[in-house]
Specification:
The protein has a two-stranded antiparallel ribbon with strand order 1-2. 73% of the residues lie in helices and 1% in strands. By secondary structure, it is an all-alpha fold. The radius of gyration is 21 Å and the shape is globular.
């Protein structure tokens, strides 16, 4: 295997390693478990979860521009990624203490732990995404990005299978195999489901090793203090010139909004299924398996489409698909589908939501994979890390909006179903802003990828 091929595989393995935080913790296992069994009730649980994501998003946004500028100037991304990895592992491990019907102090501890892990996850992705243009020529970026997301989905799918088959118990205290959780875990205390936190941490520690072994970057001789001064100076200059770069400015605004809406779907999809459709953790897990399986295939295909036609058509198609899905979700609960009543006990709402899960996997994965290649096309190739720093900044500046709107709508209406309505508006805004985005970026920055380190 060539050095470059090893670097690509190492970069891909980072996606494989970190995906369980999204699939197991944020969406399909821990989030619905928290709202259904740890919080006092599902409605207050969804609101608490939304405010937690809001606060963590605000805190992350406050640090994003500074950290991105420093990393761009110093080039020491691997050391930063090691720090984010420690936060990821620590936060997810602490979720073991999320006992059923936790008291107030325990609830706060669990929400803080989850937020710590989220910070590690988000910044780790930011710093590794900045390495994408060094992995191959411009025409290969779409395939590399799409394959990475596809492998991430497959990793998440396998981890979800393991959880459902061996650890996560249903209301009868057995897993999907019909056995008690392995390792002697007590189903009455939900220890099998709570093990999702330590399991996610262990998965990451094992599979991130190829990244640190194979993905190298050149050493920078200048001191950290100098890097901070240079980074902040370059950030100030870039922000001042940003409005004049119309395509980049519009793309940052568009992705800022639609990525926030997508994160809202991931964060509240499982919670919605548990509270509105009254699904068990096992049913939500099957929903996640379907979403991840379809998502992996869709990412791979989207990567090929991206390399052939560019990322913009892929992004537009994915957003349009997700708008339709959100509309269906808001109009479906145990008593109706698309606002049309169904007979009591009908399985139609479940079938519709399973289909929505598959479409969320397809649209969400394709959108994220194409978004990072679009950022590469919009950014200055000589200041790529700074470009992804801005991408991170735009993603974090309003990363609290979707959870805050969901929490507010849920609180005001007292309805989980109506609480997710704001996501539709956010996707529409993101789609409109894409009108000002040039598919290949601004002409002065349409050049080949920078040299690999």
């Amino acid at each position: 295997m060539t050095v470059l091929r090893k670097r690509i595989w190492g970069w891909w393995m980072f996606d494989w390693a970190n995906q369980p935080y999204n699939i197991l913790l944020l969406t399909f296992i821990f989030a619905p478990y928290f709202t259904s069994f740890v919080a006092p009730d599902p409605v207050s649980g969804q609101a608490m979860w939304g405010w937690m994501l809001t606060i963590s998003g605000v805190l992350t946004a406050l640090c994003a521009p500074v950290l991105g500028a420093i990393a761009d100037s110093s080039g020491a991304k691997r050391r930063w990624i090691l720090l984010w990895s420690c936060l990821y592992v620590a936060g997810s491990t602490m979720l073991w203490w999320a006992v059923p019907e936790a008291d107030e102090s325990r609830l706060i501890l669990i929400l803080v732990a989850f937020a710590i892990g989220m910070v590690g996850l988000e910044y780790g992705i930011v710093f590794t995404n900045a390495l994408l243009p060094t992995l191959g020529p411009r025409e290969e970026w779409g395939k590399i990005s799409g394959t990475g997301w596809a492998l991430g989905y497959i990793g998440g799918l396998i981890s979800l299978f393991i959880m459902l088959l061996l650890l996560a118990e249903n209301d009868r205290g057995v897993t999907l195999l019909g056995i008690a959780p392995i390792l002697g875990l007590d189903p009455d205390l939900r220890e099998g489901t709570r093990a999702v936190g330590p399991f996610t941490a262990l998965w990451y520690m094992v599979f991130v090793i190829p990244f640190f072994l194979w993905v190298k970057e050149p050493a920078r001789p200048k001191a950290a203090a100098g890097a901070i001064r240079r980074g902040l100076a370059e950030l100030k200059e870039t922000l001042r010139a940003l409005p004049a770069r119309r395509s980049l400015f519009a793309y940052l605004g568009s992705s800022m909004v639609y990525r926030d809406a997508l994160n809202g779907i991931y964060a509240f999809g499982g919670i919605y299924a548990a509270g509105v459709l009254e699904w068990s953790i096992i049913q939500i897990g099957v929903f996640g398996i379907l979403a991840a399986a379809v998502g992996a295939l869709a990412c791979w295909l989207a990567g090929k489409l991206d390399s052939r036609f560019g990322p913009k058509p892929v992004i537009v198609g994915a957003i349009a698909l997700l708008i339709v899905v959100c509309t269906v979700i808001v109009s479906t609960d145990r008593t109706m589908v698309l606002f049309s009543p169904v007979v009591a006990g009908s399985n139609l709402p479940d079938i519709v939501f399973y289909i929505c899960g598959a479409l969320i996997g397809a649209g969400g994965g394709s959108l994220q994979a194409a978004s990072r290649t679009m950022m590469v096309r919009q950014a200055d190739p000589d200041r790529m890390t700074e470009g992804f720093g801005l991408y991170a900044l735009s993603g974090k500046v309003v990363s609290f909006i979707a959870p805050a709107l969901i929490a507010l709508a849920t609180t005001l209406t007292g309805s989980q179903r109506l609480g997710v309505t704001p996501l539709i508006v956010l996707f529409v805004i993101g789609l409109i802003l894409l009108l000002w985005v040039k598919a290949e970026g601004e002409p002065e920055f349409q050049c080949a990828s920078p040299s690999s380190p």
